[in-house]
Amino acid sequence: MTIPFIVFVSGVVIAAASGLVGSLLTLRKMTLLSDALSHIALPGIALGILFHFTPIWGGIVFLFLGVFLIWAIEARTKLATESITGVLFVTALAIGALLIPEEELLETFFGNVQSISYPAAYIQMMVAILIIGVTLSFLKHLTLTSIAPDLATASKISKKSIEILLLVLIATTIAVGISFVGVLLMSSLLIVPAVTAKNLAKTFKGFIGISMGISAFSLFLGLCVASVYSINPGLATVLISSGIFFASLLVPTK
Amino acid sequence: MKQEIPTLLSVKNLSVAFRENHVIKHISFDIHKEEVLAIVGPNGAGKSVLLKTLLGIIEPTAGSIEWFPGIRIGYLPQRFHVDMYLPMTVGEFLDLKPRKILTNEAVLRLLKLEKSWLKKRLAHLSSGQLQRILLAWALLDDPQILLFDEPTENVDVAGQESIYTLLHHLQDTTGLSLILVSHDLQVVYKYANNVLCLNGKQVCYGEPKEALDHKTLSELFGDHTVFHHHHL
Asked: Which strands sit side by side in the sheet containing B21-32, from one edge to the other?
């Protein structure tokens, strides 16, 4: 298959953004949250397919609706974010799987690079640049709230707003990444590179840099492999990033 | 004499309740410049809750907390759990502090630590060393008063001894005021000007030698006072 140049560029930038946001998730041990959250996009994608608009916009709307619901339920019940996400995730998965026509289901789960239009690739890239910008400008607050919540509160950092910011960042990252790797494989961009980087890095700067690098490299190589051997790019990307993870285990521990 | 020394903190009739349960009730005390106040009491007496309320992390249900206007407050939490695999150096950690007044190097000098500490991995530090780095964190905004929640676990006796020596040294050199939450009465007698005994309610308040009489101690710690006397 031929993959347009803009899709390559957009994919690499999106993957870098995922590596960055993913590294923050790993600090919080919230890695599975992102995995569950990505499924909340499903009913929105289904509506897009059924009513013939670009499915990813439906996905974005549902992701934000999901984030809002998580926040609202959490405020009301004091249940943990993960628990609420768990409930919403299975509900959304069931609704999505019911609504999405069977022949499109695989594509939704594993991504379809060929369905990405030029304008969509361009917009997604811009959003990814915005994600990187916002994350970097709030990096200190996001990091401190994750590793030492008490110190953050004592420094008058609002834990609640930082948590909401992080949820919005995750949701947006998932939204722009889904068309590349699909709902099921989104964690290959968010989690695997960050976990690998955590294993390899000695400093925080190194951790973030390595995570972004591995993520971008995996997606780039995944697209290359896909265009040569016509296999699904999402699957290729996952296997490459997890291959790097297993190879990193061979590096002597620090 | 005392009227001329500025009051840094004035607490009146402070109560904190979670839902219906009172954790602390009717607490009143003052802290003046260069004073060391120790807060003692058994486990679950509400000591950490009191500190967090003073810091504004927890909302009081009743009473008032009046800080000296514009005062800079430092805080050393009881626990700071660092993930064994956290890839972060001491320098990078200290750089996370918002609104720093002192530099990392200046703070390390205050604590008599080498500059090379900035390059150490946070995850490789012992609990005692980590506590010193937390102290460095607290000193970055050049506080006039430091709130120190003594850890109940994991810090070895030698490490604990040296942190008090360090705090004492800081107090001598910078005129820092201190609020210490402690369960070690030896620390209280050695370092504190005033002591506040807490067991949900305020059991005593005053100079340690007068405030900590036999009756107070048995009210605080039950029949284990014999052990505490022996400990002294």
From this structure: B62-67, B7-18, B21-32, B201-206, B194-199, B36-40, B177-181, B145-149, B73-76
Residue A57 class from Cβ within 10 Å (0-12 exposed, 13-18 middle, 19+ buried)?
middle
Q: In this model, does residue B156 exceed pLDDT 80?
A: no
Query: Given pLDDT bands bounded at 50, 70 and 90, which one contains residue B2?
Result: very low
The complex's ipTM works out to 0.83
Chain A: nearest CA to B157, how far in angstroms?
A: 24
Per the structure block, which two tokens stand in for A229?
A: 């051997």
pLDDT band of B230, cuts 50, 70, 90 = very low
CATH number of A5-247: 1.10.3470.10
Q: Please judge whether A203 and B82 are an interchain contact, meaning their C-beta atoms are less than 8 angstroms apart.
A: no
Q: Hey, are the CB atoms on A151 and B75 less than 8 Å from each other?
A: yes
E strands in A92-216? none
Q: Contacts of residue B99 in chain A, CB cutoff 8 Å?
A: 155
Alpha-helical segments (H) within A28-117: 31-39, 42-51, 55-77, 81-99, 102-110
pLDDT, residue B83, reads 75
Q: Domains in chain B and their CATH numbers?
A: 2-83+148-231 (3.40.50.300)
Check residue A169 and give its pLDDT. Answer: 92
* Bridge partners, residue B11, by sequence: B29, B65
Identify which of B78, B64, B69 has the alpha carbon closest to the alpha carbon of residue B14.
B64
Q: Does A217 touch chain B (CB under 8 A)?
A: no
Q: Verify whether the Cβ–Cβ distance B82 to A205 is below 8 Å.
A: no
Query: pTM of the entire structure?
Result: 0.84
DSSP 3-state of A53 = coil
- Residue B225 has a pLDDT of 47
CA separation (Å) from A169 to A60, A155, A214?
12, 23, 20
Closest residue to A202, CB basis, from B57, B87, B137: B87
For chain A, residues with pLDDT lower than 70 are 253-254
Residue A227 forms contact with B (CB below 8 Å):
no
pLDDT at B152 over 70: no
The confidence score (pLDDT) of residue B227 equals 47
B207 part of contact set with chain A, CB < 8 Å: no
Kindly report the nearest CA distance between residue A144 and chain B, in angstroms. 7
Are B121 and B111 in contact by the 8 Å Cβ rule? The answer is no
For chain A, the domains span: 5-247
Question: Looking at residues B8-23, what average pLDDT do you find?
Answer: 86
Distance CA A7, CA A17 (A): 15
